[in-house]
Every structure is written in structure tokens, then in C-alpha cells.
Amino acid sequence: MIKHWTNNMLTGIIIGLIVPVISFEAYVFIFREGETFMQVLDRFVFLDVFTHIISLAAVPNLLVFFLFLWANKERSANGVIGATIIYAIIVAVLIFI
Predict the structure, then answer these.
(1) Which phi and psi (to 5°) does residue 82 adopt?
(2) In the structure, what pLDDT confidence band is assigned to residue 22 with cuts at 50, 70 and 90?
(3) How many structural domains comprise the chain?
(4) Residue 1 has pLDDT above 60, yes or no
(5) How far does CA 58 lie from the centroid of its chain?
């Protein structure tokens, strides 16, 4: 049962959507001591770099993608690519709004 769970597209999409959020939260925790998650988000929106931050937060998906490939979990790797495309669409929409 676990083998089937770890090698499907939905698992890859879920992990691919969560990893950028966790990486951004780690950035806030490590480099922005004394500030809350929302304060940092407000600052980035005010500075008009929010879309850049979303794009950079998606970079750790590369690591997850290659880990899935290394473990021969191609379907999950495809899901991570799908999640990264979702982030790209969100960035494009936010740029054109």
C-alpha cells in the first residue's frame, strides 16, 4: 500500500505545493527574527516583490523533483512539476493583475 501511495501524481502535487510554503516559512524563521509570517508577507507586497518571492520559494521543488527521480517515483516527480506549473500560473496572474 505504501509503494502505491508514494508513487502517484497526487502525492507529488501535494508535496510540490507544500514545500515552497515550508521553505518560505524557514526563511522567515531564520532570517527575519522577531517578525511574524504575515508581517514579512505585508512587507514584500508593499515592496512589490511578492511575485519574486513566490518564484524563489518554488526553487526547492527542484530538490524534491530530483529526489523522486532518484527513488524511481516518476509519477510523483510529474506531480511536483505540475505543482510548480501551478505556482508559475499564480505568479503570471499576479503580475498581470
Answers:
(1) -60, -40
(2) very high
(3) 1
(4) no
(5) 4
Spatial CB neighbours of 77, under 8 Å, sequence gap ≥ 6: 12, 65, 68, 69
Amino acid at 95: I
C-alpha to C-alpha distance for 86 and 80, rounded to whole angstroms? 10
**pTM score:** 0.86
Return d(Cα 3, Cα 8) in angstroms, integer. 9
Q: How far apart are CA 97 and CA 93, in angstroms?
A: 6
Given pLDDT bands bounded at 50, 70 and 90, which one contains residue 52? very high
pLDDT tier at 37, thresholds 50, 70, 90: confident
| Distance of alpha carbon 21 from alpha carbon 32, whole angstroms | 15
Specify whether the CB–CB gap between 26 and 63 falls below 8 A: no
C-alpha cell at 13: 502535487
The domain containing residue 18 runs over which residues? 2-96
Q: Which amino acid is at 35?
A: E
